[in-house]
Automatic annotation (TrEMBL):
This is Aromatic amino acid permease. Pfam families: Trp_Tyr_perm (PF03222). GO terms for biological process: amino acid transmembrane transport. Keywords: Amino-acid transport, Cell inner membrane, Cell membrane, Membrane, Transmembrane, Transmembrane helix, Transport. Involved in transporting aromatic amino acids across the cytoplasmic membrane. Belongs to the amino acid/polyamine transporter 2 family. Mtr/TnaB/TyrP permease subfamily. GO terms for molecular function: aromatic amino acid transmembrane transporter activity. The keyword Mitochondrion does not apply. It is a multi-pass membrane protein.
Amino acid sequence: MNKTLGSTLIVAGTTIGGGMLAMPLTSAGIGFGFTVFLLIALWLLLSFAALLFVELYQNAEADAGIGTLAEKYYGTFGRVLATAVLLIFLYALVAAYVAGGSSLLSVLLPTIQDKQTTSRVAGVLFTLFFGSFIVLGTSSVDKANRILFFTKFLFFILVLFLLLPKVQVDNLFEMPIDNALIIAASPIFFTAFGFHGSIPSLNKYLDGNIGALRISILAGSLIPLIAYIIWQLATHGVLSQGAFLEILKQDPTLNGLITATSAITGSEYIGVAVRIFSALALITSFLGVALGLFECLEDLLKRVHLPTNRISLGILTFLPPMLFALFYPEGFILALGYAGQMFAFYAIVLPIAMVWKLRRQYPDLPYRVMGGKPMLVAVLIIGIGIVMVPFLVQAGYLPGVFSG
């Protein structure tokens, strides 16, 4: 029972992070009602996809990773593809968090030449300081993360305590300025439910107990859904759509969210509380994802028999995302959008492809996710659709999340 509870909290802790901060930024033009609809729909979609991994682990070793599962059904090609997608996904997430971290840190630094230079210096400092915990080892990450996560929870309660009394009911009934924004925002909301990369570790921790894994996934993902809805209630209720969009057009970063809450409520305390909560949520996400990327690179290099040390692995882990943040200092939303593409493949397309073969080869396994082949096809189409969204936005067929 303790392991099941612990696994549930790991799912919840992995999910609630930096993606939560992007939600008000991307849903400002959507309205609260449609935002809640999108959250519930994506939770159902990704819970279904996560349960497919439970089905797969009925016929796999408890410590089997995603690459091992993919190799079992699709050979070396499956392992290479799964590993490549996972790496791109993790790199995109780390890049998003470095970009977001530089945005938050830059306002605390004295101006160095100009705003862009200050942001770049902030990105380097953020990466060097918090990246050092990863290089030092998992133990240092664990100790730092416990303190940060507990503090983050306290500030989340404080932010809600300050914001909820200022909610204006009329703000909650505002309609989307463009219905297509619901589709355009889906990859970023999609990524905010991204705990699937931790499922192999959870299954190993639970000693292959798929019943406990199923409970952990459902309960652990429900906690973030509730937190996200309350968070959206607070931000959408406090900020009128027009004023929020105007501020975000001037500063479409995490600082824009903080500026908006401070300006609309007239309270400096709310701005400070949101800034601290935003920083803590982003840092805890950064530490967890960066550790996963570091270990993924370490396993990959060992498999191809290349010598490594923690310093060289640290450079491979952090240099590419840091360069992204230097050249795209406002790239938090952009990187999360492209991370959503990779995550859609990793969390939906890949498990559906493996389960399709599993059911053909082992039709009598006791646990099977409901819906049969029609549900697999429907979820696959939705996943591919989410992958295509950023390309459709770039091509002008869908509006950007800050358009209008």
